[in-house]
Amino acid sequence: MEEALLFILIIMLAGALYALYAKDLLSAVVSYGIVGFALVIAFLLLQAPDLAIVQVVVETISLVIMISVLIISTREDLQETPVAKIKGASYIQFRHMMYVAAALVITGLFLYFFVASTAMLPAFGEHQTRMATEYVQHGAEKTGAINLVTGIVFDFRGYDTLGEATVLFTAVIGVLAMLRLVGKKEEL
Amino acid sequence: MVLFIMCFILFLVGLYGVITRRNLIKIIIALSIMEYSLNLFFILIGYRKGGEIPILKDAGAVPPVVVDPLPQAMILTAIVIGLATTALLLAIAIRLYRKYKTFDVSGINALKG
Fold first, then answer.
1. Domain segments of chain B: what residues?
2. Between A and B, how many residue pairs show a Cβ–Cβ distance under 8 A?
3. pTM score of the predicted model
4. Do the Cβ atoms of B10 and A13 come within 8 Å?
5. Would you call B1 and A48 a contact, using CB atoms and an 8 Å cutoff?
6. CA distance A11 to A35
7. What is the ipTM of this complex?
8. DSSP string across B33-55
9. B11-20 pLDDT, tens per residue?
10. pLDDT one-digit tens code per residue, A64-98
Protein backbone atom coordinates (compact mmCIF):
# COMPACT_ATOMS: atom_id res chain seq x y z
CA MET A 1 0.00 0.00 0.00
CA GLU A 2 2.60 2.54 1.09
CA GLU A 3 5.02 1.27 -1.54
CA ALA A 4 2.41 1.68 -4.27
CA LEU A 5 1.65 5.21 -3.12
CA LEU A 6 5.36 6.01 -3.01
CA PHE A 7 5.75 4.73 -6.57
CA ILE A 8 2.83 6.88 -7.75
CA LEU A 9 4.28 9.91 -5.99
CA ILE A 10 7.62 9.36 -7.72
CA ILE A 11 5.81 9.24 -11.08
CA MET A 12 4.01 12.46 -10.18
CA LEU A 13 7.30 14.14 -9.24
CA ALA A 14 8.90 13.07 -12.52
CA GLY A 15 5.92 14.37 -14.48
CA ALA A 16 5.99 17.67 -12.62
CA LEU A 17 9.72 18.18 -13.16
CA TYR A 18 9.44 17.36 -16.86
CA ALA A 19 6.49 19.74 -17.19
CA LEU A 20 8.65 22.55 -15.84
CA TYR A 21 11.66 21.87 -18.07
CA ALA A 22 10.12 20.72 -21.38
CA LYS A 23 11.08 22.72 -24.47
CA ASP A 24 7.73 22.04 -26.11
CA LEU A 25 4.65 23.43 -24.36
CA LEU A 26 2.48 20.58 -25.67
CA SER A 27 4.68 17.97 -23.98
CA ALA A 28 4.63 20.09 -20.82
CA VAL A 29 0.83 19.93 -20.86
CA VAL A 30 0.87 16.18 -21.50
CA SER A 31 3.20 15.53 -18.58
CA TYR A 32 0.94 17.70 -16.44
CA GLY A 33 -1.75 15.21 -17.47
CA ILE A 34 0.48 12.41 -16.13
CA VAL A 35 0.47 14.15 -12.74
CA GLY A 36 -3.30 14.51 -12.73
CA PHE A 37 -4.11 10.96 -13.78
CA ALA A 38 -1.57 9.52 -11.35
CA LEU A 39 -3.44 11.46 -8.68
CA VAL A 40 -6.61 9.58 -9.73
CA ILE A 41 -4.90 6.24 -8.99
CA ALA A 42 -3.66 7.60 -5.66
CA PHE A 43 -7.23 8.58 -4.73
CA LEU A 44 -8.47 5.10 -5.64
CA LEU A 45 -5.77 3.49 -3.46
CA LEU A 46 -6.71 5.81 -0.59
CA GLN A 47 -10.34 4.63 -0.73
CA ALA A 48 -11.81 7.82 -2.19
CA PRO A 49 -13.80 6.79 -5.28
CA ASP A 50 -15.89 9.98 -5.44
CA LEU A 51 -12.74 12.07 -5.64
CA ALA A 52 -11.28 9.78 -8.31
CA ILE A 53 -14.35 10.26 -10.52
CA VAL A 54 -14.31 14.04 -10.08
CA GLN A 55 -10.56 14.19 -10.68
CA VAL A 56 -10.83 12.23 -13.95
CA VAL A 57 -13.45 14.64 -15.26
CA VAL A 58 -11.62 17.75 -14.08
CA GLU A 59 -8.26 16.61 -15.44
CA THR A 60 -9.74 15.78 -18.84
CA ILE A 61 -11.49 19.15 -19.07
CA SER A 62 -8.42 21.13 -18.03
CA LEU A 63 -6.23 19.23 -20.51
CA VAL A 64 -8.71 20.00 -23.28
CA ILE A 65 -8.76 23.70 -22.31
CA MET A 66 -4.96 23.89 -22.14
CA ILE A 67 -4.44 22.16 -25.47
CA SER A 68 -7.00 24.40 -27.15
CA VAL A 69 -5.17 27.44 -25.72
CA LEU A 70 -1.94 26.11 -27.20
CA ILE A 71 -3.61 25.50 -30.58
CA ILE A 72 -4.71 29.13 -30.94
CA SER A 73 -1.41 30.51 -29.63
CA THR A 74 1.97 28.81 -29.88
CA ARG A 75 3.54 25.60 -28.67
CA GLU A 76 7.12 26.79 -28.69
CA ASP A 77 8.66 27.60 -25.34
CA LEU A 78 10.37 30.96 -24.95
CA GLN A 79 13.63 31.28 -26.81
CA GLU A 80 16.52 31.81 -24.46
CA THR A 81 18.22 34.93 -25.77
CA PRO A 82 21.95 34.33 -26.22
CA VAL A 83 23.13 36.30 -23.23
CA ALA A 84 26.77 36.54 -24.23
CA LYS A 85 26.12 39.10 -26.98
CA ILE A 86 24.20 41.76 -25.06
CA LYS A 87 25.79 44.42 -22.94
CA GLY A 88 26.06 43.58 -19.26
CA ALA A 89 25.90 39.85 -19.91
CA SER A 90 27.65 38.89 -16.70
CA TYR A 91 25.17 40.98 -14.69
CA ILE A 92 22.18 39.28 -16.33
CA GLN A 93 23.65 35.84 -15.75
CA PHE A 94 24.35 36.77 -12.14
CA ARG A 95 20.75 37.91 -11.72
CA HIS A 96 19.39 34.64 -13.14
CA MET A 97 21.58 32.65 -10.77
CA MET A 98 20.33 34.81 -7.91
CA TYR A 99 16.71 34.00 -8.85
CA VAL A 100 17.38 30.26 -8.82
CA ALA A 101 19.32 30.49 -5.58
CA ALA A 102 16.55 32.47 -3.91
CA ALA A 103 13.94 29.94 -5.06
CA LEU A 104 16.05 27.05 -3.74
CA VAL A 105 16.56 28.79 -0.38
CA ILE A 106 12.82 29.44 -0.03
CA THR A 107 11.87 25.86 -0.89
CA GLY A 108 14.56 24.53 1.47
CA LEU A 109 13.21 26.66 4.31
CA PHE A 110 9.67 25.46 3.64
CA LEU A 111 10.85 21.84 3.62
CA TYR A 112 12.67 22.31 6.93
CA PHE A 113 9.62 23.75 8.66
CA PHE A 114 7.35 21.09 7.15
CA VAL A 115 9.55 18.24 8.37
CA ALA A 116 9.68 19.88 11.79
CA SER A 117 5.88 20.14 11.93
CA THR A 118 5.09 16.62 10.65
CA ALA A 119 6.45 15.35 13.96
CA MET A 120 3.20 16.54 15.56
CA LEU A 121 0.96 14.79 13.02
CA PRO A 122 -0.20 11.23 13.61
CA ALA A 123 1.64 8.76 11.37
CA PHE A 124 0.17 7.65 8.04
CA GLY A 125 -2.86 5.42 8.63
CA GLU A 126 -3.07 6.17 12.38
CA HIS A 127 -5.54 9.02 11.96
CA GLN A 128 -8.35 9.17 14.53
CA THR A 129 -11.67 10.60 13.40
CA ARG A 130 -12.72 13.27 15.87
CA MET A 131 -15.30 15.39 14.16
CA ALA A 132 -16.35 12.82 11.59
CA THR A 133 -17.29 10.18 14.17
CA GLU A 134 -20.76 11.69 14.40
CA TYR A 135 -21.04 11.83 10.62
CA VAL A 136 -19.97 8.22 10.20
CA GLN A 137 -22.12 6.81 12.98
CA HIS A 138 -25.35 8.71 12.40
CA GLY A 139 -24.87 10.31 8.98
CA ALA A 140 -26.84 7.70 7.08
CA GLU A 141 -29.93 7.89 9.25
CA LYS A 142 -29.81 11.70 9.53
CA THR A 143 -29.38 12.46 5.83
CA GLY A 144 -30.75 9.34 4.22
CA ALA A 145 -27.69 9.06 1.96
CA ILE A 146 -25.61 5.91 2.27
CA ASN A 147 -22.75 7.71 0.54
CA LEU A 148 -21.32 9.62 3.49
CA VAL A 149 -19.28 12.01 1.34
CA THR A 150 -22.25 13.30 -0.60
CA GLY A 151 -24.23 13.39 2.65
CA ILE A 152 -21.62 15.76 4.12
CA VAL A 153 -21.24 17.86 0.98
CA PHE A 154 -24.93 18.46 0.39
CA ASP A 155 -26.38 18.25 3.88
CA PHE A 156 -24.05 18.91 6.81
CA ARG A 157 -21.98 21.41 4.85
CA GLY A 158 -24.56 22.70 2.42
CA TYR A 159 -23.48 26.31 2.90
CA ASP A 160 -19.94 25.42 1.80
CA THR A 161 -21.39 23.94 -1.36
CA LEU A 162 -23.42 27.10 -1.91
CA GLY A 163 -20.21 29.12 -1.61
CA GLU A 164 -18.52 26.79 -4.05
CA ALA A 165 -21.32 27.31 -6.54
CA THR A 166 -20.85 31.07 -6.12
CA VAL A 167 -17.10 30.81 -6.80
CA LEU A 168 -17.78 28.63 -9.84
CA PHE A 169 -20.34 31.09 -11.18
CA THR A 170 -17.95 34.01 -10.65
CA ALA A 171 -15.15 32.18 -12.45
CA VAL A 172 -17.41 31.35 -15.41
CA ILE A 173 -18.51 34.99 -15.61
CA GLY A 174 -14.83 35.98 -15.52
CA VAL A 175 -13.91 33.62 -18.34
CA LEU A 176 -16.81 34.87 -20.47
CA ALA A 177 -15.84 38.50 -19.81
CA MET A 178 -12.21 37.78 -20.70
CA LEU A 179 -13.00 36.02 -23.95
CA ARG A 180 -15.84 38.32 -25.05
CA LEU A 181 -15.19 39.83 -28.43
CA VAL A 182 -18.60 41.23 -29.32
CA GLY A 183 -18.80 44.96 -28.73
CA LYS A 184 -15.07 45.55 -28.84
CA LYS A 185 -14.10 48.54 -30.94
CA GLU A 186 -10.40 47.76 -31.32
CA GLU A 187 -9.01 44.57 -32.77
CA LEU A 188 -7.31 42.48 -30.09
CA MET B 1 5.90 10.10 7.24
CA VAL B 2 7.86 9.54 4.03
CA LEU B 3 4.62 9.90 2.08
CA PHE B 4 3.84 13.27 3.69
CA ILE B 5 7.31 14.56 2.89
CA MET B 6 7.18 13.30 -0.72
CA CYS B 7 3.80 14.98 -1.14
CA PHE B 8 5.26 18.23 0.20
CA ILE B 9 8.22 17.93 -2.17
CA LEU B 10 5.69 17.83 -5.00
CA PHE B 11 4.25 21.09 -3.62
CA LEU B 12 7.76 22.55 -3.53
CA VAL B 13 8.38 21.57 -7.15
CA GLY B 14 5.31 23.59 -8.04
CA LEU B 15 6.47 26.52 -5.92
CA TYR B 16 9.92 26.44 -7.54
CA GLY B 17 8.24 26.47 -10.95
CA VAL B 18 6.08 29.46 -10.05
CA ILE B 19 9.13 31.40 -8.87
CA THR B 20 11.61 30.60 -11.64
CA ARG B 21 9.65 29.98 -14.87
CA ARG B 22 8.95 32.88 -17.23
CA ASN B 23 6.35 31.22 -19.46
CA LEU B 24 2.75 31.91 -18.38
CA ILE B 25 1.52 28.43 -19.36
CA LYS B 26 4.23 26.80 -17.26
CA ILE B 27 3.38 29.03 -14.30
CA ILE B 28 -0.27 27.94 -14.57
CA ILE B 29 0.81 24.28 -14.76
CA ALA B 30 2.99 24.74 -11.67
CA LEU B 31 0.09 26.34 -9.77
CA SER B 32 -2.14 23.37 -10.63
CA ILE B 33 0.56 20.96 -9.47
CA MET B 34 0.71 22.76 -6.11
CA GLU B 35 -3.04 22.44 -5.81
CA TYR B 36 -2.95 18.71 -6.62
CA SER B 37 -0.33 18.06 -4.00
CA LEU B 38 -2.44 19.85 -1.39
CA ASN B 39 -5.48 17.73 -2.32
CA LEU B 40 -3.42 14.57 -2.02
CA PHE B 41 -2.05 15.69 1.35
CA PHE B 42 -5.55 16.09 2.82
CA ILE B 43 -6.57 12.64 1.65
CA LEU B 44 -3.31 11.13 2.96
CA ILE B 45 -4.07 12.56 6.40
CA GLY B 46 -7.65 11.25 6.34
CA TYR B 47 -6.65 7.68 5.49
CA ARG B 48 -6.98 5.00 8.17
CA LYS B 49 -5.24 1.67 7.96
CA GLY B 50 -7.64 -1.01 6.72
CA GLY B 51 -10.39 1.55 6.37
CA GLU B 52 -13.36 0.97 4.10
CA ILE B 53 -14.79 3.29 1.46
CA PRO B 54 -17.18 5.79 3.12
CA ILE B 55 -20.17 4.31 1.29
CA LEU B 56 -22.30 2.08 3.46
CA LYS B 57 -23.42 -1.25 2.03
CA ASP B 58 -26.85 -0.86 3.59
CA ALA B 59 -28.06 1.95 5.82
CA GLY B 60 -27.53 1.34 9.51
CA ALA B 61 -24.66 -1.17 9.31
CA VAL B 62 -21.52 0.89 9.80
CA PRO B 63 -18.23 -0.95 9.21
CA PRO B 64 -15.81 -0.82 12.16
CA VAL B 65 -13.12 1.19 10.36
CA VAL B 66 -14.07 3.79 7.74
CA VAL B 67 -11.69 6.31 6.18
CA ASP B 68 -12.44 9.88 7.25
CA PRO B 69 -15.18 11.24 4.93
CA LEU B 70 -14.72 14.87 6.03
CA PRO B 71 -11.46 15.66 4.14
CA GLN B 72 -12.91 13.90 1.10
CA ALA B 73 -15.93 16.18 1.13
CA MET B 74 -13.70 19.25 1.51
CA ILE B 75 -11.42 18.22 -1.35
CA LEU B 76 -14.39 17.37 -3.58
CA THR B 77 -15.23 21.08 -3.38
CA ALA B 78 -11.63 22.19 -3.77
CA ILE B 79 -11.04 20.17 -6.98
CA VAL B 80 -13.95 21.81 -8.77
CA ILE B 81 -12.89 25.29 -7.63
CA GLY B 82 -9.38 24.48 -8.85
CA LEU B 83 -10.74 23.75 -12.33
CA ALA B 84 -12.58 27.08 -12.35
CA THR B 85 -9.50 29.07 -11.32
CA THR B 86 -7.33 27.27 -13.87
CA ALA B 87 -9.83 28.11 -16.60
CA LEU B 88 -9.86 31.76 -15.50
CA LEU B 89 -6.05 31.92 -15.48
CA LEU B 90 -5.91 30.39 -18.97
CA ALA B 91 -8.44 32.92 -20.24
CA ILE B 92 -6.29 35.75 -18.88
CA ALA B 93 -3.20 34.15 -20.46
CA ILE B 94 -4.79 33.87 -23.91
CA ARG B 95 -5.97 37.46 -23.65
CA LEU B 96 -2.43 38.61 -22.83
CA TYR B 97 -1.08 36.53 -25.70
CA ARG B 98 -3.45 38.21 -28.15
CA LYS B 99 -2.23 41.62 -27.01
CA TYR B 100 1.51 41.08 -26.61
CA LYS B 101 2.13 38.05 -28.91
CA THR B 102 4.15 36.31 -26.21
CA PHE B 103 3.73 34.25 -23.05
CA ASP B 104 6.84 35.78 -21.49
CA VAL B 105 5.99 37.43 -18.18
CA SER B 106 8.96 39.77 -18.41
CA GLY B 107 7.80 40.87 -21.88
CA ILE B 108 4.35 41.78 -20.59
CA ASN B 109 5.25 45.04 -18.89
CA ALA B 110 3.70 47.76 -20.99
CA LEU B 111 0.77 48.73 -18.80
CA LYS B 112 -0.64 51.42 -21.06
CA GLY B 113 -3.64 50.29 -23.01
1. 2-55+63-100
2. 250
3. 0.89
4. yes
5. no
6. 7
7. 0.90
8. HHHHHHHHHHHHHH-BTTPBPSB
9. 999 999 998 8
10. 999 999 998 887 777 766 556 666 778 878 888 88
